[in-house]
Amino acid sequence: MRTSWADSVSNSAAENVTAAATNNGPASSASSRPSRSSYVPPHLRNRPPSAEPLAPTPKENLASTNRSAYPGPPPSQPRWGSREPARPGSGPSRGGWGNRTGGWDRGREREVNPFENDEPAEEAFGEQENTGINFDAYEDIPVETSGDNVPPPVNTFAEIDLGDALNENIRRCKYVKPTPVQRHAIPISLGGRDLMACAQTGSGKTAAFCFPIISGIMKGQYAQRPRGARTVYPLALILSPTRELSCQIHDEAKKFSYQTGVRVVVAYGGAPINQQLRELERGVDILVATPGRLVDLLERARVSLQMVKYLALDEADRMLDMGFEPQIRKIVEQMDMPPRGMRQTMLFSATFPKEIQRLASDFLSNYIFLAVGRVGSSTDLIVQRVEYVLESDKRSHLMDLLHAQRANGTHGKQALTLVFVETKKGADSLEHWLCMNGFPATTIHGDRSQQEREQALRSFKSGTTPILVATDVAARGLDIPHVAHVVNFDLPNDIDDYVHRIGRTGRAGKMGLATAFFNDNNASLARSLSELMQEANQEVPSWLARYAARSSYGGGGGRNRRTGGGRFGGRDFRRDGPSRGGSDYYGGGGGGNSSGMGGGYGPSSGYGGGGYGSGVTSAWD
DNA sequence: TAGACCT
């Protein structure tokens, strides 16, 4: 019996090893298998023993390579279309749930039901929700679109023809209706348009780019993919900046593509490449990857991008920031990926600095810009506090916070607290100190092994170590439910990173608290932080306002000012030109405009009389 | 700058 996610993971990992030892196929393949690492990557865990791949025979290998992921009818007609899976004898209630005859297992291994391990460890928190999304909170969110001929948004999934299989998965995910980013982004993507979308993670953006991709692959009449020796040819590529985020996207994409015949594979570093190669050889339609491992696979010619029809960059502004940009350019521009215009490109992030938008436009063709407001508002969901704390006082100050929190916590349990620090060494050091002082903590950063990173995340999510000390590796995209408190022990240098960090709490309609330790070392952040807090109706300490005023003549904080007037980049840089006056959509206090935005079709529709004024609050507000 | 990103 499953007691927790962590248990089920370790149990099934053990089962898999056992199964591999006892359930061998041909003796030859068993004896020739390389000794397997005890490390089972997350995307391969929780498989029933029967699904554990034994090394394919050379014949199988050839077959799987050639057919790639397609067992279906010949590509002369739409392979899936709206084909209703055969459901002999299935009742109306669960609609063929668990049915294996729906065209799925012809010559293939069973597809693991990605829904059966849902709701991991939720009981520990006494929560009921499954999706983590409070849809009622999504009603009144400002949305902006710009670009030529923006397709109108939809209000229900039923309005979009995503196909039966995908609709069934939407139902299984308990998605009742599309979130704002989905309402707008899905029609845009289904319309074949490139997209740059500003939307907070947790607002349903993974589904927003996955649904059109899966639907497109199902309906597409793609020519037979080339038969390279051991090269695979994915139709879609989804890139993200961290391994954990790629795993998370992969997990979600597996749910969305369940029983659609669309195969999703993830590739990332720090895990044995052989297992990933085997997964790829079994066929891949959608490849989710981190850049480094993908470059490796491309250079080994194990993956070719020449059939890519869909490219999605998650946390796109990070992906195009200095450290990543060369790798991304290599992947997108210097390998064999079809050029923009020949593929469909979707960029998503919660923040989109103007200069990054400019870089990103290299990858896009006549794109639509979409900015979606955050669920609720920062004011409602995240209380931001800034405290002046000298470097030498930070630890004891953190201790005070944690003590107070424990005292106030329910059942005397420590609420989940995510502590961001600047360096990997600093993370280890703080973790050690916390543990020594009676606070169960763990840490996640790039110097830890992948196993350690994943273990840390599990241990944090389950509440075993309710304090997680992290570098920015955990700042973006990770959906960790129940984080009550984000502490910026060391503030980042970039206000956008601050935005992403505090976005780890207050998720899914829940309240969150974000506390920052500020001192003279952070002076360059003072102005943007102060402005951000003001825009979010947070109380700005007078001392911080003084810091902000002082730094204002010093160039405005350099990089921190890059987002210009729209604090979170919720504005299309193409609209920046000679000053634009007029009213803006987000301010104005009326709110009457809030939900119908972007409903227009024509160029520049949705801009009303004047587009965004400066000082407009953003998509994130 | 350190942080992320193949070995």
From TrEMBL:
Record domain DEAD-box RNA helicase Q: where: 155-183
Motif range (Q motif): 155-183
Coiled-coil intervals, chain numbering: none
SMART domains given in the database record: DEXDc, HELICc
Region (Disordered): 1-131, 552-621
InterPro entries xref list: DEAD/DEAH_box_helicase_dom, Ded1/Dbp1_DEADc, Helicase_ATP-bd, Helicase_C-like, P-loop_NTPase, RNA_helicase_DEAD_Q_motif
Domain Helicase ATP-binding: 186-370
Upper taxonomic lineage: Eukaryota, Viridiplantae, Streptophyta, Embryophyta, Tracheophyta
Ranges of Low complexity composition bias in the record: 8-38
Acidic residues bias locations: 116-126
GO cellular component, one term: nucleus
Entry's transmembrane regions: none
Sequence ranges of Gly residues compositional bias: 92-101, 584-614
Pfam families: DEAD (PF00270), Helicase_C (PF00271)
Name of the featured protein: RNA helicase
Catalytic reaction(s) noted: ATP + H2O = ADP + phosphate + H(+)
CDD domains: DEADc_DDX3_DDX4, SF2_C_DEAD
Keywords: ATP-binding, Helicase, Hydrolase, Nucleotide-binding, RNA-binding
Bias kind Basic and acidic residues: ranges: 103-113, 569-578
GO MF term list: ATP binding; hydrolase activity; mRNA binding; RNA helicase activity
Protein family per UniProt: Belongs to the DEAD box helicase family. DDX3/DED1 subfamily.
